[in-house]
C-alpha cells in the first residue's frame, strides 16, 4: 500500500456517504484492494469486519456461524443506531433476524408465494397497474412530472397491497410510516411509525382471521388452522416485513433504474431496440446501484476463518454488497453500466439463506415498468441535471426523493 492510500484510510469511518450516484465511495475501492475483509471503525462507534470482496461476501452470507439475530451482543451498528437496535430488540423477531431452524420455519411456508411460476400469474395484473399509472402521467397537464410520485412509489405499493390483501385506500398511511422507518429520523418519529404500523397490521390480520380471503394471508391462515398452529403475532410480523421490505426498495430501484438508463443513451438504445434485453438490464441496474448496502450485517457466534482472517465470537461483520458488486474479480470493468453483461451473480438481493424472498417479484415489476415506460414514452428524458437530483443520503435504502422527467 502506498503512503497516500494508507493516509486516506487511516481516519476512515464507515459507512462513507455516496457522493456520486454512479459509483461507490472511492474509499470502498481502496479498502477492497487493500483487504477484502478488514476491521474498520464505524461512524456509529465501535468496530466491525467490513467485507468488500465478492467471494468473501458470499462465504460470509452462507456461513451458519454468522448470525442475523440483531438481539445478540456484538451485532454491528451500521444501518441501525443504538436506539433503533434497542427498539428492535423489544419487538417480536422478523424472519430477517432469525437463524437456522427458526428462520427456515418462518420462511418455508411463504416461499411458494414468490416462485417464478406463481408470480407469472400476476404479470397481467402488474402490467395493468403500470399502464394505469402511465395513463395518468400522460394525461397530466403539467410537465415535468415527478416520476417517484407518479410511478415508482405507487406501482410496488399497489402490487404489494393486492398480493397481501391490504386495502390500497390505506396506502398513504402505510407509505408514510414505512418511509419514516427507513429514514434516519428521530427515534420518537420512528417509534410512533412502528407502533402505528403494527397496530394497523394487527387489526388487519384479526379481520383476515375472521374473513379469510384468497390472498397470501388467507392462505397462510388456512394452512396454520389446518395444522393447528395459528400464530397471530407471527402473521403480524410477516405482514410488517413484507409491507416494509416490499415497496420502498422496489420504488427506489425503479427511480434509479430510470436515471441510469436515461443517463447512458447507448445502453438505453440497446434496451429500446430489443425488450428481450430488459431482464439482463435489470440485473445490471441492480448491481450498479446496489440500493441496500450493508443491510446484510451479521455477528459471529463462534470463531470463523474467512478469507484468511479470523473473526472471533461476538464480533460484528458487515457485508458491503455495493463493494462486492463492484469487485473487478467478479464483474469486469465494474464502473461501466453494461446492460449486456450477465450480472445475475450480483449480491443486491443478498445471498444464502436470507437472500431476498421477494426478488422474483421485484425483478418482474422492474422489467414491466422499464419496458412499458420506454415503449409508451420513447422520448422520456430527465428534466434536471443528474447532479441536481436529491439523492437519498438520509436513508438506509439508497434512492432519489424526487425525479422530474419530461418528454
Ligand atoms: C429491488 C428491490 C429489493 C431489494 C434490493 C431487496 C434487498 C434485499 C436484501 C439485500 C435482503 C437480504 C437481507 C439479509 O441477508 O440480511 C432482502 C431480504 C428480504 N426481502 Fe428484499 N429486496 C427487494 C424487494 C423485496 C420485495 C418486493 C419483497 C417482498 C414482497 C422483499 C422481501 C424480503 C424479505 C421477506 C426478506 C427477508 C428474507 C429472509 O430473511 O429470509 N424484498 N431483500
Map the helices and strands.
Layout: H1 3-10, E1 13-14, H2 26-34, E2 37-42, E3 47-51, H3 54-61, E4 66-67, H4 82-89, H5 100-111, H6 116-120, H7 123-139, E5 145-146, H8 147-152, H9 154-164, H10 171-182, H11 187-210, H12 216-227, H13 232-262, H14 265-273, H15 278-289, E6 297-300, E7 304-306, E8 309-311, E9 316-319, H16 321-324, H17 359-376, E10 381-382, E11 404-406
Parallel strand pairs: 1-2, 3-9
Antiparallel strand pairs: 2-3, 4-6, 5-11, 6-9, 7-8, 10-11
Helix pairs in contact: 7-9, 7-17, 9-13, 10-11, 10-13, 11-13, 13-15, 13-17, 15-17
The structure holds protoporphyrin IX containing FE.
Strand content: 5-15%
Number of strands: 11
Biggest beta-sheet profile: 6 strands, mixed
- Helix/strand class: alpha+beta
Low-pLDDT segments, ≥5 res: none
Along the chain, the helix and strand elements come as HEHEEHEHHHHEHHHHHHHHEEEEHHEE
- Mean pLDDT over all positions: 92
Q: What's the arrangement of strands in the largest beta sheet?
A: 1-2-3-9-6-4
Q: Which molecules other than protein and nucleic acid are bound?
A: protoporphyrin IX containing FE
Terminal Cα span: 49 Å
Helix content: 40-55%
How many whole angstroms does the radius of gyration measure? 21 Å
What is the number of helices? 17
Using the alpha-carbon principal axes, give the shape: globular
Amino acid at each position: 500500500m502506498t503512503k497516500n492510500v494508507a493516509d486516506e484510510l487511516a481516519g476512515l469511518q464507515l459507512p462513507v456517504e455516496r457522493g456520486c450516484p454512479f459509483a461507490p465511495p472511492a474509499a470502498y475501492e481502496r479498502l477492497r484492494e487493500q483487504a477484502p475483509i478488514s476491521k474498520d471503525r464505524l461512524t456509529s462507534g465501535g468496530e466491525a469486519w467490513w467485507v468488500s470482496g465478492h467471494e468473501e461476501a458470499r462465504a460470509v452470507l452462507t456461513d451458519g456461524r454468522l448470525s442475523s439475530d440483531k438481539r445478540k451482543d456484538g451485532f454491528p451498528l451500521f444501518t441501525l443506531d443504538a436506539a433503533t437496535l434497542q427498539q428492535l430488540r423489544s419487538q417480536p423477531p422478523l424472519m430477517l433476524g432469525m437463524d437456522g431452524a427458526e428462520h427456515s420455519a418462518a420462511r418455508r411456508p411463504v416461499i411458494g408465494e414468490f416462485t417464478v411460476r406463481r408470480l407469472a400469474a400476476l404479470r397481467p395484473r402488474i402490467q395493468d397497474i403500470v399502464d394505469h399509472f402511465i395513463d395518468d402521467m400522460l394525461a397530466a397537464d403539467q410537465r415535468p412530472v415527478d416520476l417517484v410520485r407518479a410511478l415508482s412509489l405507487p406501482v410496488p405499493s399497489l402490487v404489494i397491497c393486492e398480493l397481501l390483501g391490504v386495502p390500497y385506500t390505506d396506502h398513504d398511511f402505510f407509505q408514510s410510516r414505512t418511509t419514516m422507518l427507513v429514514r434516519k429520523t428521530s427515534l420518537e418519529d420512528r417509534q410512533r411509525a412502528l407502533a402505528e404500523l403494527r397496530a394497523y397490521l394487527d387489526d388487519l390480520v384479526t379481520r383476515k382471521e375472521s374473513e379469510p380471503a384468497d390472498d397470501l394471508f388467507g392462505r397462510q391462515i388456512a394452512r396454520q388452522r389446518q395444522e393447528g398452529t395459528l400464530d397471530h403475532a407471527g402473521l403480524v410480523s410477516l405482514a410488517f416485513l413484507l409491507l416494509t421490505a416490499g415497496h420502498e426498495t422496489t420504488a427506489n430501484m425503479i427511480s434509479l433504474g430510470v436515471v441510469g438508463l436515461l443517463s447512458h443513451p447507448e445502453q438505453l438504445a440497446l434496451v429500446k431496440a430489443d425488450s428481450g434485453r430488459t431482464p439482463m438490464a435489470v440485473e445490471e441496474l441492480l448491481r450498479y446501484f446496489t440500493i441496500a448496502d450493508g443491510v446484510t450485517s451479521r455477528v459471529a457466534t463462534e470463531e470463523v476463518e474467512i478469507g484468511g482472517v479470523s473473526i472471533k465470537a461476538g464480533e460484528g461483520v458487515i457485508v458491503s454488497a455495493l463493494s462486492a458488486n463492484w469487485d473487478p474479480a467478479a464483474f469486469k470493468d465494474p464502473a461501466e453500466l453494461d446492460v449486456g453483461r450477465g450480472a445475475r451473480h450480483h449480491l443486491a438481493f443478498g445471498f444464502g439463506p436470507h437472500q431476498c424472498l421477494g426478488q422474483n417479484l421485484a425483478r418482474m415489476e422492474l422489467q414491466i415498468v422499464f419496458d412499458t415506460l420506454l415503449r409508451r414514452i420513447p422520448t422520456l428524458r430527465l428534466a434536471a441535471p443528474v447532479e441536481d437530483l436529491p439523492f437519498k443520503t438520509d436513508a438506509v435504502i439508497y434512492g432519489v426523493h424526487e425525479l422530474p422527467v419530461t418528454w
